[in-house]
Amino acid sequence: xxxxxxxxxxxxxxxxxxxxxxxxxxxxxxxxxxxxxxxxxxxxxxxxxxxxxxxxxxxxxxxxxxxxxxxxxxxxxxxxxxxxxxxxxxxxxxxxxxxxxxxxxxxxxxxxxxxxxxxxxxxxxxxxxxxxxxxxxxx
Amino acid sequence: xxxxxxxxxxxxxxxxxxxxxxxxxxxxxxxxxxxxxxxxxxxxxxxxxxxxxxxxxxxxxxxxxxxxxxxxxxxxxxxxxxxxxxxxxxxxxxxxxxxxxxxxxxxxxxxxxxxxxxxxxxxxxxxxxxxxxxxxxxxxxxxxxxxxxxxxxxxxxxxxxxxxxxxxxxxxxxxxxxxxxxxxxxxxxxxxxxxxxxxxxxxxxxxxxxxxxxxxxxxxxxxxxxxxxxxxxxxxxxxxxxxxxxxxxxxxxxxxxxxxxxxxxxxxxxxxxxxxxxxxxxxxxxxxxxxxxxxxxxxxxxxxxxxxxxxxxxxxxxxxxxxxxxxxxxxxxxxxxxxxxxxxxxxxxxxxxxxxxxxxxxxxxxxxxxxxxxxxxxxxxxxxxxxxxxxxxxxxxxx
Lengths: 139, 399
Prior knowledge:
A: 1 helix, B: Peroxisomal Thiolase, Chain A, domain 1, 11 strands
């Protein structure tokens, strides 16, 4: 494979994470919750961080949150992303607490402020039959 | 708790970093042998005395790394360690070697970071290199492969830029102060003939006018990748006293390892260095005021800024003012990365993280020649792996 054939890499779900990706395809955000430690968890895993409780269960959430931090990559962060710059690569803090990696869409660079409210945007990539979870400012 | 300070860095080998290597490639094992020989020669210690090694990964074997090395070098060791902490690996190897020596396991430990190009196999595997994602893992089942890489959160620039943006939102961002870190370190590089940027001065304006790579980080605030290699010899009291130079005693250390991706940090602005530095100072009994120079991991200017704060040289959030008020060059009032740092000296793979250690030891040995800090007796050193999330702090002292 030569570099000009590189495409942005798509996630390869594993059994444990499949419910998250299935949810996104249906336009829903669901993440794990540990009742014993009253803790929301992202990314999906086998045991709750710190307590190592194995009682994680899937729950739907709104997906809304605040912008924790971001950067605007002026050069592609990897050859796969050539042509997509500027990439607005964000860390979103969900209202439930956990943070996730995303990109911001439908926003002017000058309108981005850390701490602003953001909402999920379900970006369905037909070729990969995968929905990525992007974010936009709350109107 | 901790070290007595009975082990010291006594020998140094360091190949001049090169951006376009003129010499032919060498296998990692060949580099290990050559670097070990040079470092032992520098110390005046015979190879037959080596009874411990600390290594990072090698190209020739994915596992069984120590025995692959000891077999090739003909060594019989009591202590064989592989460390995988990115840019913190070399500093982490130093305290592990000192601890092993103080426990009586061994007397002479060689630590090497070969970072010269290796020969390519005659029939290289096809397909894009997995290294296009830098330190991010694209392996099946890797959380990064599934939740970070698809969004372009790849490798280092992005994460450090996110850290810098968060810092700015919390404390305010002074681009000139950040640029001054690169400029002051360049002054030292200009006086260090081994630096890739020897005799290439820059100004704050040059830094701010260099291309924006990932907001708010400019090109001249990012390390220059190059090729090289380094090794040191760590020895106990007896061998250290017989060595050729003033020993650089390892009197304190701290290590803290947190997350891999900044997204999952508990608090992006509370770095792993805070507890690591606190432990190192407490163990050594030294105070910040007693430190003559710092030699701290500098992959980006923001790394140095946060290191100065989190090591306790100024209050958190006041680093930019501190940088404006101090001269960080080797001839200044707060010598920081007197070899030029990786920003000025060059980052030769993992040997880049060794350069902070070799420079600290060289200063205490009073062998820094063109960029010597007068009367250097105490050095504070850090290694930083991943994204501020794997931190090692060391205190080195002269007699």
